[in-house]
């Protein structure tokens, strides 16, 4: 706390589940920090339904940080309903699928040190398929007077007041573009068109390499 220069931490969120430590112990330890006034709320990241329920039985969980976008809709089957039943909000990261659906990505853009150079969704035929999806998104966005990135961000924000879209940007122009989606409200027809064009499972390729996917508790529901 001293090094951070704060009196308390608003949300304490372990980045990943430690399979060697029961979630009850992790949440219990943070709960003691809440009782002592060092932490206000407890969050979790990339965990599945059973882990959420076990964690919430120890202490209320304020939010779940998890990937959610037009082409990463896996949480809608079990995780999102469970979060709503437990009163847990969603902090959605990857809303542009690591730039894939931003409208700016091009084949061959990832250098050797770039995570996306090894991501299944950015490889070969999978990338060709996924970039074709972006062209569908671009057409819909133009009809709304938006960029593909703005429409993708607005769609996530439209999924409920309990869903917050987390957006990162390395360039000022990309940040300005993302902020242009803040006041956008999508009408019912546009949301229906997006749901039709981007049903769950439409993307080709996993979000991470196989070894990384096996480490995600959220992939087990």
Round the Cα radius of gyration to an integer and report it: 18 Å
Query: Would you tell me the overall average pLDDT?
Result: 89
The dominant shape is globular
Q: Biggest β-sheet, characterized?
A: 5 strands, parallel
The helix fraction, in percent, is 25-40%
The first-to-last residue Cα distance is 34 Å
Structural account:
The protein has 221 residues and is an alpha/beta fold. 37% of the residues lie in helices and 11% in strands. It has helices at residues 23-35, 49-56, 79-86, 124-144, 148-157, 172-179, 188-197, 210-213, and strands spanning 9-12, 39-45, 63-67, 89-93, 163-165. Helix 3 links the parallel strand 3 and strand 4. The longest helix is centred in the middle third of the chain and has 21 residues, at 124-144.
Features:
5-stranded parallel sheet; alpha/beta; 8 helices; 221 residues
Brief overview:
This protein has eight helices and five strands; from the N terminus they run βαβαβαβααβααα.
Structural topology:
Layout lengths: L8 E4 L10 H13 L3 E7 L3 H8 L6 E5 L11 H8 L2 E5 L30 H21 L3 H10 L5 E3 L6 H8 L8 H10 L12 H4 L8
Parallel strand pairs: 1-2, 2-3, 3-4, 4-5
Helix pairs in contact: 2-3, 4-5, 4-7
